[in-house]
UniProtKB/TrEMBL annotation:
This is Recombinase family protein. It comes from Pseudalkalibacillus berkeleyi. Gene3D superfamilies: Resolvase, N-terminal catalytic domain. Belongs to the site-specific recombinase resolvase family. Signal peptide: none annotated. It comes from the Bacteria. CDD domains: Ser_Recombinase.
Length: 217
């Protein structure tokens, strides 16, 4: 599995320079122990309460791009402190990236309290997503009731409009069910050489849901 090493100390004091060197050395050893392929090493000197750290944002970008499977840190406090740590753990979990630490000599085991907070965050996020989708679907139904026909907005080659773009709708549905946002799906498909915008992903997914609802009626 591909891994990213993340080393952090809280200040730029010279006394902490040796600490960050030691972290990197030990994390390289941890990667060898578990046969991980290290693709990136990120070193950062910033407070753990600060979530807008260039280094940790780079880690999250790698996770989002599916470039890494595992994040290696000295201990969970290197990720961040307080709510910053919870937010980062939630994001890593969302992208399916595991977190290993030297302190636990393996995958980080969350405390009962942290697990509960993460579960609540996931439930709230899922509820917000469903609520948002429900509003969109309701708006679409009202528009259709008032005479709007989505298919007439779509390009039609024979009628001289723009070509209707071929999109991997099954992949869009699968990624959506995995909890990705429309923007994230667009980025993912762009990486697979599909030239598709967030708006197109959103429109095609709503078309699918509308057809699905109509089939159930």
């Amino acid at each position: 599995m591909n891994a990213v090493i993340y080393c952090r100390v809280s200040t730029e004091k010279e006394t902490q320079a040796s600490s960050i060197d030691r972290q990197e050395s030990e994390l390289r050893g941890l990667a060898e122990q578990f046969h991980f392929n290290v693709v990136e090493i990120i070193r950062e000197m910033r407070s753990g309460y600060d979530i807008e750290r260039d280094g940790i944002l780079q880690v999250l970008d790698l996770a989002k791009e599916k470039s890494v499977d595992v994040l290696l840190v000295q201990d969970e406090t290197r990720l961040g402190r307080g709510s910053a740590k919870i937010a980062i753990l939630h994001t890593l979990r969302k992208f399916g990236v595991k977190c290993y630490s030297i302190s636990e000599n393996g995958e980080i085991q969350l405390t009962e309290a942290d697990s509960m907070v993460l579960e609540i965050v996931s439930i709230v996020e899922d509820y917000q997503r469903k609520l948002h989708n429900a509003k969109i679907k309701r708006g679409m139904r009202r528009a259709v009731d008032k005479g709007y026909r989505p298919e007439k907005n779509l390009a039609n080659i024979n009628e001289g409009g723009r070509d209707r773009k071929e999109v991997p709708i099954e992949e869009i549905i699968r990624l959506r069910e995995l909890g990705l946002t429309f923007r994230e799906i667009s980025i993912t498909l762009n990486g697979l050489n599909y030239d598709i915008s967030k708006a197109t992903v959103h429109r095609r997914y709503q078309e699918f849901k509308l057809r699905e609802d109509e089939a159930k009626q």
